[in-house]
UniProtKB/TrEMBL annotation:
A Pfam family matched in the record: Aldo_ket_red
Taxonomic superkingdom: Bacteria
Domain NADP-dependent oxidoreductase: 21-266
Annotated source species: Paenibacillus flagellatus
Similarity field: Belongs to the aldo/keto reductase family.
Protein name according to UniProt: Aldo/keto reductase
Active site: 54
Keyword vocabulary terms for this entry: NADP, Oxidoreductase
UniProt binding sites for substrate: 116
CDD domains, per database record: AKR_AKR5G1-3
Length: 280
């Protein structure tokens, strides 16, 4: 893998998506958010992931504009993702939600737009709206979030366009191997949210031992494990030092034995809601 924070994978429609991005879940509007986006871009990140429900698209947009100006970059050099919330899942309502997100972000288009959760009976109409946005050139790539294999199969049974990305909770205690195998077999890029299990993995003895071997942090080892599984990762931080640290994962490699030791930590344990049992 190229030793570079801007290394990309190509989605099935040919669009390049960075392997590493900045997540902003639970980061409130304000200067801290703006500065986090700017720090990420300054240190080489080219991908930012937000969502309508995070309530921070305006701040992300401000951070993007300031970062582009300060670093002499064009909008096309960034990969920006947002997501349609459950209350807006429907054909017309999803189209309206997309325009609302663009307005808050202050952007003309998104690089990736996702259905946030697989709400039964609603995601197919929302997907039809995403297909419309994609075919009209309003968005570069479309995908889903928190979809299990059966949700993907159900969606693809009627879809004209196959999802390009599926963003899910993915970390060493939730390796989702059947889902990873399915997405790879179908050319859908898996992306990890909460890759560090909201910090709960940082004291794991197996991870600490592997990190010590490489002179790296536990966070860097976990993010590297994502990459070596072919999974895009978007760790969240508002601290510049941590943002830099999270990006320093392209200068070492885990052995196959180390990968297997990390895989063996799986307990099918979630920190977020279960996609088969949620009520929002």
């Amino acid at each position: 893998m190229t030793q570079h924070v801007q290394h990309t994978t190509h989605l099935h429609n040919g669009i390049a998506m960075p392997w590493l991005g900045l997540g902003v879940f639970q980061v409130e509007e304000g200067r801290e958010l703006v500065e986090a986006v700017k720090a990420a871009v300054k240190h080489g990140y080219r991908s930012v992931d937000t969502a309508a429900i995070y309530g921070n698209e305006t701040g992300v947009g401000t951070g993007i504009r300031e970062a582009l100006a300060e670093n002499g970059l064009a909008r096309e050099e960034l990969f920006v993702t947002s997501k349609v919330w459950n209350a807006d899942l429907g054909y017309e309502s999803t189209l309206t939600a997309y325009e609302a997100s663009l307005g808050k972000l202050g952007l003309d288009y998104l690089d990736l737009y996702l259905i946030h959760w697989p709400v039964a009976g609603k995601y197919k109409e929302a997907w039809r709206a995403l297909e419309t946005l994609y075919k009209s050139g309003r968005v570069k790539a479309i995908g889903v979030s928190n979809f299990q294999v059966h949700h993907l199969e159900d969606l693809m049974a009627d879809a004209e366009i196959k999802p390009m990305v599926n963003q899910v909770e993915f970390h060493p205690l939730l390796t989702q191997k059947p889902l990873l195998d399915f997405t790879k077999a179908n050319g859908i890029q898996l992306e990890a949210w909460s890759p560090l299990m909201q910090g709960r993995l940082l004291e794991d003895e197996v991870l600490k031992a592997i990190a010590h071997e490489h002179g790296k942090t536990v966070a860097q080892v976990v993010l590297r494990w994502d990459l070596q599984h072919g999974v895009v990762t978007i760790p969240k931080s508002v601290h510049e030092r941590r943002i830099v640290e999270n990006g320093t994962i392209f200068d070492f490699e885990l052995s196959s034995e180390e990968m297997e030791r990390i895989d063996a930590l799986n307990r099918d344990r979630r920190v977020g809601p279960d996609p088969d049992n949620f009520d929002f």
